Amino acid sequence: MTQSLALNLILLAALSGFAAQALHAQTANAVADSAVVITAKGLSITKADFEQMLAGDPRLAMAREQSSAKAALGTDFGRAFALEAEARRRQLDQLPPVQLKVRAYTQQVLANELLLSLRKEYLKDDALLAKTYASEQDRFAQPRVRHILVRMQGSQVALRKGMPDLSAAQARAKAEGLLSRLNQGADFAKLAKSESDDLGSNDKGGDIGFVPKGATSANFEAAAYSLPIGQLSKLVQTEYGFHILRVEERKSLPLDTVKPMIANELAHRDLDNIIRDGYTLNTAYFGN
């Protein structure tokens, strides 16, 4: 077989694959949204409802591209429908214990939908988002952090060559000693180069750059976002060991970047308010 013929065969196979995918997409689009796509002993679901039920599910996106994936997805849900139909035929859904289980699940779904709804409404309120951003702009500024890590046993951080595997108590004692040296005027960058167990930043004097929210451990993030610029932190313990932090500068993020964050915080604030006065407990049963 010549090289030219082989290339032509490969190209033909690729084109055939694209054609098959295109035909699959056309076939799927030919099914009306109102068409029933699954039935099971009295239960049914239309194409529109089925795709809405799976909105955001990566399996649906794959099924839209590959006929085999769509067939597998249909089979999975067909089985689930068959079992649901049989359970309903036996009236298991009418049993009080089952209804309580359904209620518990429904509570979780509705609570999440309430959060999503509140967040969506706040994202539409540009004036409120801008006002909140202007009044708390420093809180939405990313800190550039320099740190020293003293690793402890069990840490996911690799042990530096030639260094002892310190227990938590030993690591804390060493970190306290380093913090004392810094408070007495030791150079942070030099101390980080020689003593920090963070191999990714010690050669940079402990500088890890700007820290986005959600990118580090909760304790580390809380310290990084609350520390005044240039001030040493107290010891901060994470699953990696003990840290000493210093914020070098803060970079304000554009409003458009933090709008989802602000909307999320406002939505959670509303949830807290709803919860605060939204229920009453029987103290004879639950206690005070």
Write the layout of secondary structure elements.
Elements: H1 3-30, E1 36-40, E2 43-46, H2 47-53, H3 58-65, H4 67-89, H5 96-124, H6 126-135, E3 141-151, H7 168-183, H8 188-195, E4 207-210, H9 218-226, E5 236-238, E6 241-252, H10 255-276, H11 283-286
Antiparallel strand pairs: 1-2, 3-4, 3-6, 5-6
Helix pairs in contact: 3-4, 5-10, 6-10
Q: How would you describe this protein?
A:
By secondary structure, the chain is of the alpha+beta class. Among the domains are: 35-90; 142-255, Chitinase A, domain 3, CATH 3.10.50. It has helices spanning 3-30, 47-53, 58-65, 67-89, 96-124, 126-135, 168-183, 188-195, 218-226, 255-276, 283-286; strands at residues 36-40, 43-46, 141-151, 207-210, 236-238, 241-252. The radius of gyration is 29 Å and the shape is elongated. The termini are far apart. Residues 1-24 have low confidence and may be disordered.
Give a brief description:
This protein is of the alpha+beta class and about 290 residues long. Helix content is about 55%, strand content about 15%. A 4-stranded antiparallel sheet has the order 4-3-6-5, sandwiched between helices. It has a two-stranded antiparallel ribbon with strand order 1-2.
